Amino acid sequence: MKVELWVAIYGAVMGTIASGIATAHVIWQLFHDRANLDVKGQISFVHTDRMRVILRISAVNNGRRPVSVRSVAAFLAKESLPIPQGLSPERSAEVLELNQAKLISHQLNIFGGRGEKPFQLDPDGGEQTWDIHLYKRVQFQKHTKGNEELGMACVELTSGKKVLCDFLIPKDEHWPSA
User: Fold this and answer.
1) pTM for this structure?
2) For residues 45 and 43, what is the distance between their CA atoms, to the nearest angstrom?
3) What is the CATH architecture assignment of 36-174?
C-alpha cells in the first residue's frame, strides 16, 4: 500500500474518534450542565409574645444554569379547603360544590399563583427561602414514613418541572391551642 492510503485511513480514524468525542461532550452537557434544584421544607414554632407556627420552604440551585421559579405551594388535605369568611350561604355552597367536583386546587400557595413574577435562582448555590405563618392548625395532605407524618410541598419552575419535598408535620399536642 502506498503512503497516501495509510494517511487517508489514519485521517478517517482520527476524524471518527474526534467526532465521537465531540458528540459525547454535547450529550454530557445536555444531562449534566443544567439546573439541579434541592428543595427542603420545615414547620417551626417561634416563641415571641405568642407562639407562631411557620412553614418554611427553601430551594437551592446546585446546578450550572439559572432557574425561574413560578410557584411554591404545600398540598392540603381535601377536607381543609379554606372558605373565605363573609361569603353568603349560596356562595359558600357553590365553593363547596366546586371542591367536591375537584375544580379547586388543594394547595396552600406560598409564592406564585397571585400574579407574582417568576423568581430567578442563580446557578452554583443560588438560594431562596419562603415563609408563611400558619394562624390555625392546617390539615396538610400527609403520608407516613416510619412513625412520622410527612406533608408535601412543591416548587414549580417556569419550564413546568415540579420539584417535590417532604416536611415533618408536628404531632397534634405540639400545636398551639387556638
Assistant:
1) 0.69
2) 7
3) Sandwich (2.60)
